[in-house]
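sry for the spam today, last one i promise. struct tokens for design, 110 residues
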């Protein structure tokens, strides 16, 4: 069901289960997804270190799995979590804090 990229990975969007806030994006292969589905904690595959890492093991900022869904194309995952502490490695609540780009805002028109 999963459609991996050339490196064997799929994007995993991490979302806070109750507020629906998008926290971060990580990468998973089949093994990291298996670990996530069977442990109740999110495990990613680090592209830079080429190793598995379970969120919170070194930082204390845990992600407890609430649900895992596959998108309609099979090339992305949406994982809802109960986030403990900061989600971003920089120490911010989300990886998207204070990083907004200037964009023209569209509207439906009337």
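last one done:
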């Amino acid at each position: 069901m999963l459609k991996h990229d050339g490196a064997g990975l799929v994007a995993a969007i991490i979302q806070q289960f109750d507020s629906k806030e998008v926290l971060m994006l990580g990468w998973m292969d089949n093994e990291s997804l298996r670990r996530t589905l069977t442990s109740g904690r999110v495990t990613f595959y680090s592209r830079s270190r080429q190793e598995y890492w379970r969120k919170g093991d070194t930082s204390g900022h845990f992600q407890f799995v609430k649900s895992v869904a596959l998108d309609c194309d099979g090339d992305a995952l949406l994982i809802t979590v109960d986030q403990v502490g900061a989600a971003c490695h920089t120490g911010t609540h989300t990886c998207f804090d204070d990083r907004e780009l200037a964009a023209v805002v569209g509207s439906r028109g009337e």
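Residues 29 and 79 are 14 Å apart (CA to CA). ok im logging off now
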